[in-house]
Design brief:
globular, WH-like_DNA-bd_sf, Transcriptional regulator, 9 helices, single chain, 4-stranded antiparallel β-sheet, 7 strands, WH_DNA-bd_sf, Arc Repressor Mutant, subunit A, ArsR-like_HTH
Length: 217
Amino acid sequence: MEDIEAIAVLQDPVRRRLYEYVAAQDHEVSRNEAAEGAGIQRTLAAFHLDKLVDAGLLETGSRRLSGRSGPGAGRPAKLYRRARAERQFSVPARDYRTAADLLAEVAEAARLDTELQAAARREGRAARAAAGPAGDLAGAKALLAARGYEPRTEGDVLRLVNCPFHVLSERHPALVCGMNLALLEGLIEGTEGLRARMDPRPGLCCVVVERSKNNER
């Protein structure tokens, strides 16, 4: 029921714009910034942001934006960020997560890493063929965004804010992260000067896509 309510909250176009803006940022967002990003007044933004918090789609924190402390530093501002909880919704209920967890457990026990990675690479190639070649880093970013990775550019690197396999990767990190790397290798295969590699960091996907140095793959 909570997931249904969360999805219902996003039916409002203003709330959806606010949620998408906050989720796309790599920092906590103030009410002023969110209002400007969504093109609405601050009071309206504050109302809808708190509705998104009530629905569990956003989380809040507070700090002084001036960076100062003590008397005269001003009151801490309320800041918003995307909630870390995952949402699922299907009618009637489907339990694909349990099935995926059991399959991963069996694959791990049977040491099917190589076979899984080969299948993931084929899937990546098929997805690339359907979408067309990435072409360059910007094209790779669009491909990854379409698959839910939420890529953000840091110089010559695409860091992936969202892992579509997050829960599964926490339970079976070696198996699932290896699969994820192979999938992205297949997705960008044939794109000159790009490579995918492992670079696990807290709160991010375990894989990055980057411009390869000296065309190394």
